[in-house]
What we know:
The protein is α/β, with parallel strands linked by helices. Helix content is about 40%, strand content about 20%. The strands form 4 sheets. The chain has a 7-stranded parallel beta sheet with strand order 11-12-10-13-14-9-15, with helices on both faces. The protein has a 6-stranded parallel beta sheet with strand order 16-21-20-17-19-18, with helices on both faces. Strands 2-3-4-6-5 form a 5-stranded mixed β-barrel. Strand 11 (about 350-355), helix 12 (about 360-375) and strand 12 form a beta-alpha-beta unit. The protein is globular. The two termini are about 40 Å apart. Bound molecules: adenosine-5'-diphosphate and magnesium ion. The site of adenosine-5'-diphosphate (ADP) has 17 residues, from helix 10.
Amino acid sequence: MVAFRDPVRNVVGGPTAKEMTDRLGIATVEDLLRHYPRRYYERGELTDLARLVPGELATVQATIASVGGRQIRAKLHKLDVVITDGRTRMTVTFFNQRYREKLFVPGQEAFFAGKVEVYRNKLTLTNPEVALGDDAEDFAGGLMPVYPATAKLASWRLRKAVSVALEVALPEADQLDDPLPAELRLRRGLTGLDDALRKVHKPDTRDDVRRARDRLRYDEAFVLQTVLARRRAEATAQPATARVPRPGGLLDEFDARLPFTLTDGQQEVAAAVAADLAREHPMHRLLQGEVGSGKTVVALRAMLAVVDSGGQAALLAPTEVLAQQHHRSITAMLGPLAERGLLGGSDIGTRVALLTGSQATAARRTNLLDIVSGDAGIVIGTHALIQDTVDFQDLGLVVVDEQHRFGVEQRDALRNKAKVPPHLLVMTATPIPRTVAMTVFGDLDVSTLTELPAGRSPIASHVVPAGEKPHFLDRAWTRVREEVDNGHQVYVVCPRIGAGPEEEADDVPADAETTSALRPALAVLDVMPMLVEGPLAGLRVEMMHGRMPPDAKDDVMRRFAAGVVDVLVATTVVEVGVDVANATAMVVMDADRFGVSQLHQLRGRVGRGSAPGLCLLVTDSEAGTPARERLDAVAATQDGFELSRLDLETRREGDVLGASQSGRRSSLRLLSVLRDEAVIAEAREDAAALVAADPDLGKHPALRAAVEAVLADQRAEYLEKA
Ligand code: ADP
Ligand code: MG
């Protein structure tokens, strides 16, 4: 008896096993059984060869009349098999499948499935799927599975291998250890594992296929959610210090000074965060929300609560510009509360330290001292925060801004700097659909800010088809002048820096087939002089990009924020979090070179104050192209969730799951994190209940084995990457 997890070579020959493993990732018998058919050919009644329709998929049952192969050229072998239904004859052709020559025996009956083509005025099938002999008998049952195959390993050979595996590895009905508890199967109306595996490979009806796939798809969601539920349970079982703000302390002072009232959404999330912080187990929360929905205030309040209780909070930002900006805006919001120990500073206040890679040694030393002594209650920084030399007095909370730029490892490295596991708050402004959140961030509790603070102005977005209507672009620059004349600032964003070897914006959609794709994308260094000498002459135009020294970037940003600079020509360094309330317009050059979510992020930089925002998406792409449709979609809605869904749909599943998902990809065959929302939600609920009742899965050995297989996969892939 061959076991499920035995190597696949126990059921197929050595070379076949090698091809399976190398090319299809099939290492075990189970992998083979989980190599599901891509589709199924349906057997018709005995096919009347005279009634085939060119261009249609057909399955033909016929008798082999004659077989003739010949080598046409050095690398081209042609095999013609003449088949007949008794009245009509037809030739079926195989290229470079010489081995079939001896498999076809005249007089034998066989099935052929493929697309009907016309060759020299006659109907034919080229390289069709074939079922012969025993296989044909099987197939006579109903549907013929077609497998993802390789050049060396045709679908029919996989079909045979699967047949063998089914026979030797699947015990008689209902003996197989099913990872899904019977109660759950019953409740969700799912068939058993052995039944599902048999039916997915050897269905009689379409309904069999559906039931089998439903069950197997559910498995994928359930095992993954069990992994996540256990991770969540383990993480929250760790000890942590409860952080409860002092009455009349820093947080109360801050709230009293806040120039606005929190939105209902902010209050709700703040309450959830406060409740998490008050527990003696670490918070693991994801805070997602539209650009400008006020996440930073919520995070700052959490940090102040921790400082109030004697701890420290660290804010990890993805770029120096952002770290600097957070430092500036948080210091400003705190006012005297951030000046403890300074003249005029509040004595219940604290200090806010900034730590970035480019800091001068002296400043860095002072900051490190403030951090280790605990004088700095709030520490803001980039990756530099993660370095070995940074020691905290009592790190109680880690806030990670813009999660998608940080790996789980980095977030963990910072958390390891605490003596007791700190609380964790992850903020992301790239809203992701609920199901993706449940999968990618499945070990975090998710809070979402959906409303924008009142008084926020809408952003009018327009596509400017510069290729078709050049005068539209002139009109755009006129609008820029008008904004500046009204005392506002404007961003002009380009995909490239220019004048040097460099990558384009990293998020370029694969299908960006645009006219502009024929030339390099517009660059800051080229657009800048073009504007200064042309349409924006006389305005105070400056630029900012990633190759400038951090100090210079900071300086430009500061002057732009202060209104000393009118127009900032920049790369996507302004993409995340940059917050200049007086900036009202943005012109994105070669907008088709950016991804949907990225454009949405960029656009979020304007309309942050009370004046209405304007976003102009300049493109050479033509109406009707996918690139142009994406831009139209961005212009048509400000709903980040809708746009992120659109964005994800244009990517492949593996990319959706991204690096944080490494390893899991291989465990998802039927499940789509975008389409199967209901399945994922159900599985998540079921997994949470099961893990709560049986945390170490002691009562569910088959599930435990499946979970361990996924974890082993993830570890393997992690090691490969490292
Ligand atoms: P996010 O980080 O979600 O993009 P921020 O926290 O940076 O958003 O907030 C954007 C701007 O809105 C900031 O200038 C902030 O001070 C302001 N803001 C935040 N919450 C409110 C509110 N409830 N009412 C008015 N303005 C707010
Ligand atoms: Mg922000």
